[in-house]
Amino acid sequence: MIETGDSESGYDPYVYGNWLAESRIKQAISEGKFDDAATGKPLESLTEYENPFLDRIEVHAHKLMKRNGARPEWVEKNAEICEKLAQQRQLLYEGFRRRHRVIRQTERPDGGFLSRWLQGTTATPSSSLESREEEWKRVQEEFARELQAINKTIHSYNAMVPMHIQFSVLHLEREMERLEERRIDSK
Q: I want to staple 105 with a disulfide (CB 3.0 to 4.6 A). Which of 31, 114, 157, 180 is the partner?
């Protein structure tokens, strides 16, 4: 245990320091010095430019980039990954929905809208289902290819950022489970 004061006199500078700071804060509150404080906003004196851990050159580089609207490469890659992944997940979901719509129609006892729509043509509900299944396979294959490309981007992104903001590699099986969960939740 660390000794913080003189055991004979009972004086403890750590406790006294806390008491002193606390009493000054209470005094300032009672005098109304915190009445106009901007609650929920960062203190102006603690900006990123006064960060003691940043080199002076880095501070100037950050100011220059901010003034000109530039973003670091890793921020751009992060946005690219998120945008591309959201786009591909949406395409997969739309293909999944189209396939299940046809399946539900063919399972209805009266054949549903699909059967009535196909009347007078050479197509049948089963041929329509087969074409949707082929389309679904193409959508899945395209998604798998895009997922590989996204994973390559993730690997290059992860190489330039600290571990606590890295992305996990994406897996097709997990994405398909996620799709199934989304379908169940939307029912």
A: 114
- Confidence (pLDDT) at 32: 79
Residue 145: how many CA atoms within 13 Å on its side-chain side?
Answer: 6
Amino acid letter, residue 183: R
Q: For 131-173, what is each residue's pLDDT tens digit?
A: 888 888 999 999 999 999 999 999 999 999 989 999 999 999 9
Give the C-alpha separation, 142 to 91, whole Å.
Answer: 10
Report d(CA 173, CA 15) in Å as an integer: 57
Q: How far apart are the first and last CA of the chain?
A: 60
Q: What is the SS3 assignment for 55?
A: coil
Q: Which amino acid is at 147?
A: L
pTM recorded for the entire structure:
0.56
Residues 6+ apart with CB under 8 A from 128: 102, 106, 114, 118
What is the Cα–Cα distance from 117 to 124, expressed in whole angstroms? 10
